[in-house]
Specification:
Blueprint lengths: L1 H24 E5 L10 E8 L5 E8 L13 E8 L2 E8 L2 E2 L6 E9 L3 E9 L11 E4 L4
Antiparallel strand pairs: 1-2, 2-3, 3-7, 4-5, 4-8, 6-7, 8-9
Length: 142
């Protein structure tokens, strides 16, 4: 009886440690409320993979077409700040779903650098090397 209780306690402890270790590698960070597109909301998930890279998954809802902004632009650009500087991660397209009129935008990418902040700007061109002043969504530093 005693060995069964000890085995059960040890198993429970190992499961708890494994669960905490798994969630520590996978972070979900919400974007702060936007003054440019107040209805937009979403989050960034960052997960370190087996190769030491950082997988970034971005999901946003209610992101208006960039041409409908107060200062119309052609596209949204996702930026990543890290200890290695600032990087353009690419364009973000917002589209309506098949069964819904709500606009959604998603992006998945991988980087060798650990992000410290992710933000999105409205730009005239998706290949810009520095972000413009129209920051649409941003995370806090993480």
């Amino acid at each position: 009886m005693r060995s069964f209780t000890s085995f059960r306690s040890t198993t429970l402890l190992l499961l708890l440690v494994a669960a905490l270790g798994f969630t520590a590698c996978n972070r979900k960070i919400a974007f702060t409320t936007s003054t440019v597109v107040p209805g937009a909301d979403g989050a960034v998930k960052v997960k370190k993979d087996n190769n030491g890279n950082h997988a970034i998954d971005i999901e946003i809802r209610n992101l208006a077409d960039p041409q409908r902004l107060a200062l119309p632009q052609n596209t949204y650009v996702v930026w990543m700040e890290s200890n290695n500087g600032l990087k353009n991660l690419g364009q973000l397209k917002s589209e309506t779903g098949l069964l819904s009129k709500a606009r959604k935008a998603e992006m998945e990418t991988v980087t060798p650098y650990k992000p410290t902040r992710i933000f999105i700007t409205a730009e005239s061109d998706g290949n810009v090397q520095t972000p413009g002043n129209q920051v649409v969504l941003s995370t806090r530093s993480f």
